[in-house]
Amino acid sequence: MEQQENTYALDAENASEMARLIMQDRMITQAIGGVLPELGNQLPPDTHHLLDVGCGPGGWVLDVAFAFPDLEEVVGIDISEIMINYARARALTEEQDCAIFIQGNVLRPLDFPDGYFDLVNARFMVGFLLRDAWVPVLREIRRVTRPGGRIRLTEVDNMGVTTSPALQQQLSWMCQVIQKMGYGFSPDGRDFGMTPMLRKLLTDAGWHNIQLAPHVVDISTGTDCHFTQWQDYMVAFQMLKPLYLKHHLTTEEEFEHNYQLALAQMQQLDFQGLWYLLTAFATKPDEQE
After folding, report:
1. Which of the chain's termini has less CB crowding within 10 Å, N or C?
2. Other CB atoms closer than 10 Å to residue 69's CB: what's the count?
3. Residue ranges per domain, the chain?
4. What is the DSSP letter of 281?
5. Which residues pair with residue 53 across a beta bridge?
6. Rounded to 5 degrees, what are φ and ψ at 203?
């Protein structure tokens, strides 16, 4: 598949980023109740071909392949060579023959025939789709989905709401830099501005019967997700630091002081935090347009 410029917000070939995504994927899937919680973790009838867009290290694909061993194939596509290689190695080790991983850029036409997939999943595309790419990408996904097939998008407006002042500053810088770089739809950089837009984006791309399902991940001290999210922040903020400095959101000295304070405050016994996610489900009309 011909490649276009990589628009992933962070370094897609960074091993630390891959490790972060592995942890994050596992945490979120468990926290929201499985790979398809809105469907009771059951596949609709006549579902044989699935696609995961921006699959990263392949967690969702491999979880689906394990849960539904009779599937013909579940395909993951991602621009990162290191992540696709990792996913392929894991699929081989786990003997998941129906899990297929392809290195490719979703900003280019997908190398699949019309109406090929029964269900398409995508999580956190805000991290690699610039604003003007959303509708074209959703239309291309619609092309490769069969009539009556489904799309499932999970997005966020921020990376958490917490009681830590220092952590909230880091999260504020993150929202500002995302907005300045052209991701999300926030008018002021206070958040990503994604969840209010999902219905409109799907409608503009020709999807019908849109349903919304909220999820909450508790990252407070003492919860199952607390340490994993602490590790996520520890890696993500360091990777975002050059972007903060480039866009003059902070100084090196201020960042380092705030970074250490945020990690310390998150380890306090009274730390409280929640992460809100929204999944939008939609179907492709039975009649071709």
Report:
1. C
2. 9
3. 15-283
4. E
5. 77, 122
6. -65, -45
By the 10 Å C-beta count (0-12 exposed, 13-18 middle, 19+ buried), 201 is classed as: buried
- DSSP strands (E only) in 94-248: 99-103, 117-123, 145-156, 161-162, 208-218
Which residues have C-beta within 8 Å of that of residue 258, sequence separation ≥ 6? Answer: 166, 169, 170, 250
- Residue 223: DSSP 8-state: S
Question: What digits encode the pLDDT tens for the residues 169-217?
Answer: 999 999 999 999 999 999 999 999 999 999 999 999 999 999 999 999 9
What CATH architecture applies to the domain 15-283?
3-Layer(aba) Sandwich (3.40)
Contacts of 93 (CB under 8 A, 6+ apart): none
Place of tokens 């090929």: 116
Tell me the torsion sign for CA atoms 218, 219, 223, 227: positive
Half-sphere exposure of 35 (CA within 13 A, CB side): 20
Alpha-carbon distance 153 to 279, whole Å?
A: 5
CA distance linking residue 120 with residue 207, whole number of Å = 12
Cα-based distances in Å from 256 to 164, 166, 167, 208, 259: 16, 11, 12, 47, 5
Tens digit of each residue's pLDDT (9 = 90 or more) over 6-24 = 787 777 788 999 999 999 9
Query: Residue 289, class by beta-carbon neighbours within 10 Å (0-12 exposed, 13-18 middle, 19+ buried)?
Result: exposed
- Using an 8 Å Cβ cutoff, are 168 and 162 in contact? yes
